[in-house]
Amino acid sequence: MIRKATLLAVLSAALLVPSTVAAAPGAAAASAAARQGIDLTLTSVTPDYATERATEIKITGTVRNSGSVATPGLRVRVRYSSQRFADRAAMAAYADDTTTATQPPNVSTQSSMVISELAASASQDFELTMTPAQFGLTSFGAYPLAVEVVQWDAVQLASQRTFLTYAPATGQQQPVRNRLALVLPVIDQPRRSDDGTFVDDELGAELTGKGRLADLARIAEISPSSVTWVVDPALFDDVQAMTKPFRVKTGDGKPEERPADAAASQWLVGMRAALADNPVIATPYADPDVTALAHRGLDRQPGRALELAAKKAALIKSDVSTSTYWPVGGMLDADALDLLAVGAPGATRVGKVLLDPASLPTQQAASAATVLPAVTPDAATTLDTVMGPVTALVADAELSHVLEPTPGTRGSILLSRQRFIAETAMISVEPGQTRARSLVMAPSRRWNPSPTLVSTLLKTAGKLPWLSLTPLDSIKVPRDRVPRAGLTYSDRDRKQELSGKYLEPVREVAAQAQLAAEVTGQQQSSFDAAVLRLASSAWRGDTKAGRAVTEQVSEAVKDRIGKVSITGAGPDQPRTLAGSDGEVPISVKNELSTPVSLYVDVKSDDPGLLETHLPQLEPLQIDGEQSGTVQIPMTVTSSGGGDASVTVQLRTADGRAYGEPVKLIVRTTGYTGIALVIVGGALTVMLAAVVTRILRRRSQRRVARAARTRESEAI
């Protein structure tokens, strides 16, 4: 009843208003209920742009009544302006504003269609035609255009804004053919903890059906060779691991064995074939958050990521470049840029960076605090680093947004195409342009692509006379480039980085993994790839998941370190030291398949009872799956004897602790002092016995001699 009463009030007011007058401001509230029930969708605008004043422009679409009651007295009509946009900032303001106050002021009396009544849940297709002459268009440029649905020619129930491009073949200002580099990313979040275990089974779903990575493969198949692709080698590394039997960590934390995934093999084969003729740029391995690493002192990881990227890029094709870096969000500061410019010993250093315009604004835009300058600058410029100048390529924000229309927008593919045509046309006739400029168009790195939209834009770009698609690496720095304000990196950008709290455990895992490598004589850790996956920019919005993966990698590193250990430790396995000094053997077991080299550091926890001395000048060398023993000199410092505790710590050549320290019990007997007393007493007794025997024998001899003497005298 309330809805009907509202509708009657609106109709009564409408009858008192002339048909050519737009809805009065007071009618907005009264028509709210009716407006919610009408949906307007544009399905086509042909041709892409008009070249003659008599060119017939056709617009088709659908009006749908999503309400529960029939709506009478509808008209679909066109609103327009004969004044072209002054600049791209005006275009952006028009597209973003949906109020009736900023809609095109003129209503076409020729381009309209009446719908006497639209039943509930019913739809009605429409077709409107017009010409530039009817709209009074006279010069090359982009013009505002809108299609609206009104009731009784008074109340606007729905409206859709778009752009109309007029490009006459002759005129005072002819467009310049600018170069456009389209950059499309194939970047995902890391899917493995260590090299052998996947953290979930979501990657398989992304590779098939309507999965995001499956869509990217479809786009790659249709893209011309001029399109540049930016790929993360870690993604291809993950997919490659799925082409063989692999493990997935399940909900209960136990890894589950999975057979080789046929879809992974198919995706890899398809992407390799599709990208064979296209320029391909590799991100550093696992797309690490380089700015966060630079600010938190993890300076080694960016260079290592470049090394691994160059190595793993062979999974894609042989000629993948690693010399161009695209930071997350397009934002970069001088510290991170210097790290990338230095690179790693023997690895290709970064010589180009792809940035967002907010990271490197023009001087005019920086002073005016706006993103869109009055004139679109060339994409290429230079930046200074500790290694000399590098090339900076700045993506165009408005063009890039065209690739990612607002989700759920009806007719978004058509609207994106019309915006793309208008934007590029507007750039080509900006004041002061005398030569072609370079433009870069790139969506966000983990975008959710629409193959239909990308295909449409590629086809459209190939037909526009003011545009030429070109590879990213063909863009050169012009001599007359627009001055830029230098790298801009705000506090807000810093807050979006991976935090120090998140990266501290990553730093510890990296340090322990490096120790595990060094004791085997290797400079690079087998966990480097896993550590870089922990530092991926993908965890910026999901640090909880990143911490869970960090814990898994930490456990794997601890398990690796634990394979070289002190044996025979524990209170029930005491070592015995008999005497005041001696040597106690300490054994080290190597369960790894490779030899290890390390030092054994022993300290007495009870120096009042026991002291240790270990002048170990050479490391202990232990072959794979073998044990080694070190004899530790020890001295008893108390005559009472007893159990003493010593701490044994394995160390690297530079003195860093390897693994956890181990407590050993050494039992000192105190036998030495007692033994001296016993031996001394025994010697005394023995000497006394010997003397007694000698004296007895002498006495016996004297008695015998005396007897013989008496016998001789008696005779």
What is the makeup of the main sheet?
5 strands, parallel
List segments where confidence is low: pLDDT < 50 over at least 5 consecutive residues: 1-35, 671-682
Q: What does the radius of gyration come to?
A: 42 Å
| Oligomeric state as shown | single chain
Strand content: 25-35%
Note the total helix count.
21
Give the terminus-to-terminus CA distance.
173 Å
Query: What is the residue-mean pLDDT, rounded to a whole number?
Result: 86
Query: What's the count of strands?
Result: 28
What structural class do helix, strand and pairing data support?
alpha/beta
The portion of residues assigned to helices is 25-40%
Instruction: Identify the overall geometry.
Output: elongated
Task: Throw out a few tags for this protein.
alpha/beta; disordered N terminus; 5-stranded mixed beta sheet; single chain; 21 helices; signal; 26% strand; 28 strands; 715 residues
Structure description:
- With 715 residues, the protein is of the alpha/beta class.
- Helix content is 33%, strand content 26%.
- The strands form seven sheets. Strands 8, 10, 13, 18 and 19 form a five-stranded parallel β-sheet that branches.
- InterPro entries: DUF6049.
- Residues 1-23 form the signal peptide.
- It comes from Nonomuraea harbinensis.
Short description:
With 715 residues, this protein is α/β, with parallel strands linked by helices.
